[in-house]
Design brief:
Elements: H1 2-7, H2 13-19, H3 26-35, H4 39-52, H5 56-71, H6 79-103, H7 109-121, H8 130-144, H9 151-159, H10 167-188
Length: 200
């Protein structure tokens, strides 16, 4: 139905553009803007979609397409989008490289969170600080559910985990690098993981 709406009325493109302006239609608007070759507008719409998206993979997809759209324009460079994508990628890489090997045999999300807390964090004396334990647990719950985590939660996840030795020590530096990426993205986007308007 929507594809017909976007394609079958070539003389009504201006009316359709006006109709798609409200936020509830933004997931259709960016497609229409691309079809009109309004790449900067499509990028703007996609960054708005990403700012509302709480799930991590759809957010990454929206930001990636926004970056591609912005690359098609000559007006803007996608450095700010790169920062936001690097923060999203850091969370995905943490989930894949650190969390998944530890929790792959767990039966449900609650068990994944408990095992991850015990395996990755309790040796850092988090039990002595109930507040830190709650912050890490809340962030782990979001990561396990593949939801976006705010900058503070990600930095806590990346920096409060157990110290590694041997081969794991290399990964230790990686997690601090991820924390720095998240901090840099949060400077550009103070309400990280919300994404601000990059094209207007």
């Amino acid at each position: 139905m929507y594809s017909k709406l976007l394609q079958e009325f070539p003389r009504e493109k201006a009316s359709l553009s006006k109709f798609l302006q409200p936020q509830k239609y933004e997931k259709l608007r960016w497609i229409h803007e691309l079809s009109l070759q309004r790449y900067a507008d499509a990028s703007h719409t996609l960054t708005q979609i990403a700012s509302h998206e709480r799930r991590l993979r759809p957010r990454k997809l929206a930001l990636s397409i926004a970056k591609l759209s912005l690359l098609l324009t000559t007006a803007s460079q996608p450095e700010d989008l790169d920062l936001s994508l690097s923060a999203v990628n850091a969370q995905l890489q943490f989930a894949e490289d650190m969390l998944k090997p530890v929790v792959e045999n767990c039966i449900d999300n609650q068990a994944r969170v408990e095992v991850a807390l015990e395996t990755l964090y309790t040796a850092r004396n988090l039990k002595k600080s109930h507040l830190r334990m709650r912050v890490v647990k809340r962030a782990l719950e979001a990561v396990v559910e593949e939801k976006s985590v705010d900058a503070e939660g990600l930095v806590d996840l990346f920096t409060l985990k157990k110290r590694a030795s041997g081969h794991g020590a290399e990964m230790e530096f990686e997690t601090y690098f991820w924390a720095l990426q998240v901090l840099r993205a949060s400077e550009v986007y103070p309400s990280f993981p919300m994404v601000l308007d990059l094209t207007r």
